[in-house]
Amino acid sequence: MTSSYKVKLLRRHTAAERTMAFYLEKPDGFDFIPGQNIDVGLIDHDIIDPNDSARAFSIASAPHHDYLLIMARMRDNQYKNALECLPDGAQLEIYGPYGSFRLHDDTGIPAVFIIGGIGITPCYSILSHAIHEKSDRRFYLFYSNRTIADAACLDELLRMQTELVNFKCIPTLTAMGQSNNGWKYEYGRIDFAMICRHMPDPVRAKFYIVGPSRMVWPMVQHLDGRIPRANMLVEDFTGF
Amino acid sequence: MTATLDDIERIKNLRERMKARPVRRLPEWLKISARLGPEYDRIKNILAHNQLHSVCQEAACPNIRECFGEGTATFMILGSNCTRGCRFCNVKTAVPLGLDTEEPERLAKVVAELGLKQVVITSVTRDDLPDGGAGIFAETIRRLRLHDKNIQVEVLIPDLMGNMKAVDIILEARPDVFAHNVETVPRLYRRVRPGAELKRSLDILRRADIYRPRPVVKTGFMVGLGETLEEITELLRLIYDTGTQIVTVGQYLRPSPGHMTETRFYHPDEFRQIAAIGRDIGLAHVEAGPLVRSSYKAFSQSQKLLNRKI
């Protein structure tokens, strides 16, 4: 059941270039399914446009955590500026949880995440939950960013491979030359050929495509005909 | 993921908390008879047989019994999977299953079979298509007119990502009524319609108003999402400034516990007050009531305006 709650901002840190992670107090009785999202409302309306006082964020933490984690690309707009300036302990209003983006039931079918940038947040929640549950289902994460600095939670995701037995993380950079020292993963946009290099039989998998519209819908079109559309689930982050 | 002990415990706790909450009771004016007539079954079966969808069913419209009972339906084209996840809407968010180019003809045949003289066509949002599905809207209007040149067609379109070329494709097919809903007041936009913008929606209405020959231009919004009367008045002014003639205002009713909660139920007198404000602003017709929906009795709202269309 969706509800609204007053919560405190506990702390924040920089998660990547222009990306902040905000830890919010988790209200008593707040329950959600990994992959769902909440609206976060700024209570001090004097400092922002009243028409932009609440925005939706995927929950990046897992249900067993005692906090709610959200992440935001810090674009130059009134809402994000106001959020960034809030002191720790400031009060926020959250609404939710919302959304039908959640993992499929059949653990025998692999889950493939095709993620662009900050779209990593619902996936991060699902993977954290899977670690907590000691899940042995197969997960593949294709994680696309322009540069290493843009890739939120990359170290943690790579480390998750040691904690989650059947998880493979395949990061890729789209705006860096292949001469970059030390990068031992993929370059360029995610495509079907890249997917096939890293996993067997993708046709049988469920695909979760998350990111901005300009990434999500071309990816659906690219995979169309190769992967059944019924096996794709999208989360379009435009306007979030 | 199979349910773990943690999941089972969480669900158990959630159920207990839900039991402890006060039961949501609808006021008298929102209670609807659950009686289903033979017309309801007839239309439902025809739609299912022809792989067509009605927004009446997909959006769990409270007027479905009345409209189906009177032999009318609002058809939802372009499939039943929507690419947006609006917080008020019951239509399923999922990747659409391709593009069904045969749908316009099937729909036109069904409309002929049902003997409808007026039809409302709406759709899911199709952000996956370059034209947002505008071409299928236009083709549907053309096919309907091929079967019956006197048929009156209302289209209720999604925002097409603000692609005005796509809007023009639909306008060029000359619908009698061109509708696009603004849904809520500016302050609640980001919460109610993630991925949409009020300015984009107002621009679409403005575009229809300046198109010649001009269709009747219509929009609608919901109340009960947390707006104030001042905000409703401001929205009615913004709508008036676009040249829109008809506005529908109805009570938001949460379709499931996973959707936004109603902040309050407006009394019928308050709807009358909203309609009066709209008329004072200069809107030609404001249809406001607890169970009013965009396509509810659509042509009775627009008939006078259709008769004196430019």
Q: Can you give a write-up of this model?
A:
The complex is a heterodimer of chains A (240) and B (310). With 240 residues, chain A is an alpha/beta fold. Chain A folds into two domains: 3-98, Translation factors (Elongation Factor Tu (Ef-tu), domain 3), CATH 2.40.30; 111-236, Nucleotide-binding domain of ferredoxin-NADP reductase (FNR) module (Rossmann fold). Chain A is built from five helices and twelve strands. Chain A has helices at 78-85, 120-132, 154-163, 192-198, 213-223; strands at residues 3-16, 19-25, 37-42, 54-58, 67-73, 91-98, 111-116, 139-145, 167-173, 186-187, 206-211, 232-236. In chain A, the strands form two sheets. In chain A, strands 4-3-6-1-2-5 form a six-stranded antiparallel sheet. A six-stranded parallel sheet of chain A has the order 10-9-8-7-11-12, sandwiched between helices. Chain B is α/β, with parallel strands linked by helices. Chain B has one domain (32-307): TIM Barrel (Alpha-Beta Barrel), CATH 3.20.20. Chain B has an eight-stranded mixed sheet with strand order 1-2-3-4-5-6-7-8, with helices on both faces. In chain B, helix 5 (103-114) packs parallel to helix 6 (134-147) and helix 10 packs parallel to helix 11 (268-281). The chains are: A alpha/beta (240), B alpha/beta (310). At the A-B interface, strand 4, helix 5 and strand 12 of A face helix 1 and helix 8 of B.
